[in-house]
Amino acid sequence: GLTYRIPALLYLPQDRAALAFAERRSSPLDEHAEHLVVRRVILMMQIENAGKIQELTLATMPGHRTMNPCPRARGGLFLFFITVPTGLSEGEQLTSGENAARLAYVCSTDRGVTWGAAVDPTDAVLGPRVGRWATFALGPGHGLHLPASSGSRTKLGRILIPAYAYFKRDVHKNDSQSRSFSIYSDDAGVTWKVGDAVGGALHTCECQVAKVSDEAGQPVVICSRTLGHEFRAQAVSDDLGRSFREGTVVPRLVEDCNGCHGSIIGFLPELQGDTTPKHWLLYSHPSKPKKRLDLGVYLNRSPLSPENWSDPWVIFRGPSGYSDLAVLGKTEGGGLWFGCLYECGEKYSWDKINLAMFPLSHVERHTSHPCELATLRPCSIRDS
C-alpha cells in the first residue's frame, strides 16, 4: 500500500520552519516510487504546526519514477533527485550494465512554497562518464553549502550534492564497484561539475558530506554506506569536496547485513573559552549490527579521528531505517538544537516517517551514558 520513504530535511531559519521531503511509493519497493512530497513544519523548538503534504508533481519526468531527494539552500532552494523509467529496478540496471537514471532538479525562490519545472542537466553535467556507470543516485538527504572564505577561489562559496555510482569494471560482465563522490557548483547553481570519487577498494554507496575544520583549513568529510562490509566508510577531502582521499572503515559505526543509509552533519558547539572553535560531527543510523533496529545518534568531538565516535544514543527503539539530520539553531537560552527525520514503525521500518528534535546537551549526556530519552515528541510526515 501507500508508503513514504527516503526522508530529507532542510531547515529554513528565517521562517523557523523545516521542509520534510520524502518519496511517495505505492509499496515499499524502490521500483514502486511515484513522486516526491514535502511537508512544511513550523518549529519553536517544539512542533507547533505541520502543514498538509504537498505533492511535488512538477519534480517528475514523463514515464519515470522520482527518487532520492537531496535539498540544498543558498538564496533559492535546489531540490535534486533522480528519475528512473517506471518499473525498472536498480538490480536490473546492474545486471544489464545499462544506466537508465537521469539527474534532475527543481528550484524554489519563495522558500519552498512553490517550485519551478524540473530541469534535466544529465548530459551537460555528467557527460560521457554516465556511459561508464551501471547506474547512479544522489545522497539521499541534505546537501551542503560551503560559504566563501578568505583565500577561497570561489566568491559565492560551493554547493555540494553527495552522489554515488556503480563504476563498470568489465563492460562484458555484471561487475561494478560502487563509489561515492560529489556534484558541485561554484557559481550558485548556474553550472555544475562532477568531482572525483572516493578511492580504494571499498564499495562506498549512499552518502552525505559534512564540513569540519582544523588547523589546515576546511576539510570535508564524506560518510558512506558500504556494500559487503560490517562497518561504515569515511573519507576526507582537502579541496572542499572536489576529490576525496582513500576511504577507510569506521569500526565504531556498524552497518547491518546489506547496509543502510545514515546522516551526518557538522556544527560548531561554541564552547566557553574556546577562541578557535572546531566543528563536531553528529551522525544518525540504526544501531544494531544485523537488522535495521533502534535508531541511534552518535557524536564525534574530533571529526578527523574516526575512532572517536561515541556510543549511540537510541532515540527510537524498534524497526528504523533511513534518516536525515539538520541543525535547527539556538533557543533564547543559547542551547543548540537538532532535528532528525527518520523512517520507523512498530512492525516495519517503513511504516512511517517521524521528525524528532533534541538539544545538544541531551546528545552529550546520553552518548556518554547511553539511554533512551522519553521526552522526545516526534511528528509524523503522514497526514492524520
From TrEMBL:
It is an enzyme of class 3 (hydrolase). InterPro entries: Sialidase (IPR011040), Sialidase_fam (IPR026856), Sialidase_sf (IPR036278). GO terms for molecular function: exo-alpha-sialidase activity. It catalyses: Hydrolysis of alpha-(2->3)-, alpha-(2->6)-, alpha-(2->8)- glycosidic linkages of terminal sialic acid residues in oligosaccharides, glycoproteins, glycolipids, colominic acid and synthetic substrates. The keyword Kinase does not apply. It comes from the Eukaryota. Its EC number is 3.2.1.18. Pfam families: BNR_2. Keywords: Glycosidase, Hydrolase, Lipid degradation, Lipid metabolism. GO terms for cellular component: cytoplasm; membrane. Residues 59-328 form the Sialidase domain. One of its GO terms (biological process) is ganglioside catabolic process. Belongs to the glycosyl hydrolase 33 family. This is exo-alpha-sialidase. It comes from Petromyzon marinus (Sea lamprey).
